UniProtKB/TrEMBL annotation:
Domain of life, per lineage: Eukaryota
Organism: Forsythia ovata
Name of protein: tryptophan--tRNA ligase
Cell wall biogenesis/degradation listed as a keyword: no
Catalytic activity, EC: 6.1.1.2
Keyword Nucleotide-binding set for record: yes
Family annotation (InterPro entries): aa-tRNA-synth_I_CS, aa-tRNA-synth_Ic, Rossmann-like_a/b/a_fold, Trp-tRNA-ligase, Trp-tRNA-ligase_bac-type, Trp-tRNA_synthetase
Gene3D superfamilies given in the database record: HUPs, Tyrosyl-Transfer RNA Synthetase
Keyword terms, alphabetized: Aminoacyl-tRNA synthetase, ATP-binding, Ligase, Nucleotide-binding, Protein biosynthesis, Transferase
Record GO biological process: post-embryonic development; reproductive structure development; translation
Source taxonomy: Eukaryota, Viridiplantae, Streptophyta, Embryophyta, Tracheophyta
Length: 407
């Protein structure tokens, strides 16, 4: 996602959602649909206690069908510590509770100029890192977004129902288009939130793991689901031979309490990013020990005495302590007590050792997976097959509800 969809980081069930969606909470859809398409803000009720060690989950003791999460990361640049701690590490816990599909969002990777020679390799590398980080193919399906063509087909159908005003208000489009310049901005950069909505709605998601910077896109997804349900669902769909009712489930956000925003090593106010010009600003999961140690040694710090959490004047300190906490699995209090009297030199050595110890097994497993191309091909093919079986049902329902001649 790195629009953690989505870097975008998504859930499905045959039962009703745990939380009541805005569709059943007094929203006057006919009034808003007659309006000029103004985008409304939602007061989300989030599950905000997910962590790698103990995911926040609804009580499923009386539910036989697991909820489903679908999420992904772009294959642009190297997967870094922010992607891992903010998304992938949480997936490992979520796959034990939910039915999960994790995909590589290669279609999202082409919204800005990219290297065509590297896209295929980067896609395979990203999939291998998913598995190396602990995604278990006996519990989760791993696939490539473009291998399930329903993503693009549904995007086009949804585009016909998406007011252009909704897309013009997307903050990320404004920021990225301003940086890239008009000549380097394609229509896909404007419309990719519709593709993101397709990624989510295609699998009838109940919950969507999102970072704070993706909440606006999920709001659009929810609005779009409600709009399509109103325009084409219910009795209108039933008259066309469908089952009637809602076409799409309206998803709720699932936001991890920690790790969702790992900050840059060179700027404590900026998120760690693949697109940052300096590789010094991020820790890549495949960085060798000497490279990693050099990045930690040179990362930006401050001149305050001691180390402490939650001081707004010390963003770099808070970021590095948080990384150490997440990597070691220690509590915040344990880290605070351990590090409060340390100087930066001592702490950086400890942090480096912790990162090396944590990332080394991932790097070894990654090399093993990459040495067996046939294994990776089988994993991706099986994942795409499972995903397509689910996606095609949704897509066929949408075609029917929108009045298309059935195949």
């Amino acid at each position: 996602m790195e629009r953690s969809l989505l870097s975008r980081f998504f859930v499905l069930s045959n039962t009703s959602p745990l939380f009541t969606s805005s569709m059943t909470s007094g929203v006057n859809l006919s009034k808003y649909l007659k309006s000029s398409g103004q985008f409304r803000q939602h007061n989300f009720r989030c599950l905000c206690t997910v962590s790698a060690s103990e995911p926040a989950t609804p009580d499923t003791s009386s539910i036989s069908v697991k909820k489903r999460i679908v999420s992904g990361v772009q294959p642009t640049g190297s997967i870094h510590l922010g992607n891992y701690l903010g998304a992938i590490k949480n997936w490992i816990a979520l796959q034990n509770t939910y039915e999960t599909l994790f995909f590589i969002v290669d279609l999202h990777a082409i919204t800005l100029p990219y290297d065509t020679q590297q896209l295929s390799k980067a896609t395979r590398d990203t999939a291998a890192l998913y598995l190396a980080c602990g995604v278990d193919t006996s519990k989760a399906s791993v696939f490539v977004q473009s291998h399930v063509r329903a993503h693009v087909e549904l995007m086009w159908l949804l585009s016909s129902a998406t007011p252009i005003g909704w897309l013009n208000r997307m903050i990320q489009f404004k920021e990225k288009s301003r940086k890239a310049g008009d000549e380097n901005v394609g229509v896909a950069l404007l419309t990719y939130p519709v593709l993101m909505a397709s990624d989510i709605l295609l699998y009838q998601s109940d919950f969507v793991p999102v970072g704070e910077d993706q909440k606006q896109h999920l709001e659009l997804t929810r609005e779009l689901a409600e709009r399509v349900n109103y325009l084409f669902g219910g009795r209108k769909w039933k008259k066309l031979g469908g089952r009637g009712g809602a076409i799409f489930k309206v998803p709720e956000p699932l936001i991890p309490p920690a790790g969702a925003r790992v900050m840059s090593l060179t700027d404590g106010f900026s998120k760690m990013s693949k697109s940052a010009p300096s590789d010094q600003s991020r820790i890549n999961l495949l960085d060798p020990k000497d490279v990693l140690a050099n990045k930690i040694k040179r990362c930006k710090t401050d001149s305050f005495p001691g180390l402490e959490f939650d001081n707004p004047e010390r963003p770099e300190c808070n970021n590095l302590l948080s990384v150490y906490q997440l990597i070691t699995g220690k509590t915040k209090q344990e880290v605070a007590e351990e590090c409060q009297d340390m100087n930066w030199g001592t702490f950086k050595n400890i942090l480096t050792d912790a990162l090396v110890d944590h990332l080394h097994p991932i790097q070894v497993r990654y090399e093993e997976i990459m040495s067996d191309p046939a294994y990776m091909d089988n994993v991706l093919a099986e994942g795409a097959s499972k995903a397509s079986a689910i996606a095609d049902i949704t897509l066929n329902n949408v075609y029917q509800a929108m009045g298309f001649l059935r195949r």
